[in-house]
Amino acid sequence: MSKKRILSGMQTTGKLHLGNLLGALENWVSMQDEYDCYFFAADWHALASNYSQTDELKDNLLDLGVNWLSAGLDPEKSTLFIQSLIPEHAVLHVYFSMITPLPWLERVPSYKEKMEQVVNRDLHTYGFLGYPVLQAADIVLYKADYVPVGIDQLPHLELTREIVRRFHDIYKTNIFTEPEGKLGSVPKLPGADGRKMSKSYGNAIYLSDTRDEMKAKIKNIVTDPARIRKTDPGDPEKCVAYAFHEVFSDEESNKVTAEECKTAGRGCVACKKELAESVFRRIDPVLERREYWSARPKETLEALWEGTRKARAVASETLKEVESAIKIDISSFRDSLS
Predict the structure, then answer these.
(1) CA nearest neighbour of 260 among 248, 247, 274
(2) Which residue, 56, 46, 45, 49, is CA-closest to 89?
């Protein structure tokens, strides 16, 4: 019995941080043996909101590959590929854009939210509005059964399913698989200041940081603001450092940490020193592999190139089916002229 197929991607907009490792990469690695996994570097998607900031895209792409391999993604088990090297993504995106009603895109929650929140960039572009259409093409080109998503991404996936149903209805075909969301238990790791961990907030701990840089950032993680002196009792629920402990430290030690915080039995400096030890226990294997792959950019890129060749063969076959259904497959004309 063939394995079910998984597909997911990451944008090349910046360096990966601990939140990316815990929220996506560890989950991807855990699925490699059970599923037929396709993971791609979404460099076209990176242009949707960063079209004027492209200087770092190539470096980010290489860094993405390094982090994937360091986290444990295995090119022998998973197909790792680059979106922009497979033009079939763009072609199917065009076909889908011709049949996708505009109101479907305007109602996507993340579109409305970003239009309200992002004030330093002009997002009044088709690329930004049509982001979910390209995303739909990314998924169904590989006939993925499942897409690992967070709850906030489910509307995007439902839009993909709607586009698939509309395509099948218009062209009287049944080419694509309607993908299902695969919700996982994802640890909630905030940034050092308590907000979402993000490059734009300057609160992220990056996988590319040195150990000393990581230690310095952990040292500066925000604690309960009411705990001014070491002798002041604190509230673990208001402490960002404790939120990190809940992700990286074991349950028993967290009980002790919470109690000593409430009774002022331990100061914040000691608490964060212990936190750093817990963080490194968890991520040291990744950092060690990162040193290895960072010194081997050629091998990293070769893994992506090989995966891209494999992925394009799959995408090409799907697109042939699409163009046959639409009746714009002109290869027969070429054959008649030969």
Answers:
(1) 274
(2) 45
Q: Quote the Cα angle for 79-286-187, to 5°.
A: 85
Cα–Cα dist 32/74, whole Å: 8
Share of the chain above pLDDT 70, in %: 93
pLDDT tens, residue by residue, 58-74: 899 999 999 999 999 99
Alpha-carbon distance 136 to 113, whole Å?
Answer: 20
Name the residues annotated as catalytic.
114, 196, 199
Give me the pLDDT at residue 127, please: 84
Q: Give the pLDDT score at 6.
A: 97
Q: What is this structure's pTM?
A: 0.90
Q: Where exactly are the structural domains of the chain?
A: 5-189+297-337, 209-292
Instruction: For the domain covering 5-189+297-337, report its CATH number.
Output: 3.40.50.620
State how far the Cα of 263 lies from the Cα of 240, in Å rounded to an integer.
18
- Among 226, 290, 274, 288, smallest CA distance to 15 is for 290
Neighbours of 206 (CB within 10 A): 20
pLDDT at 274: 96
Topology at the third CATH level for domain 209-292: Tyrosyl-Transfer RNA Synthetase (1.10.240)
**Contact yes or no for 33/224 (Cβ under 8 A):** no
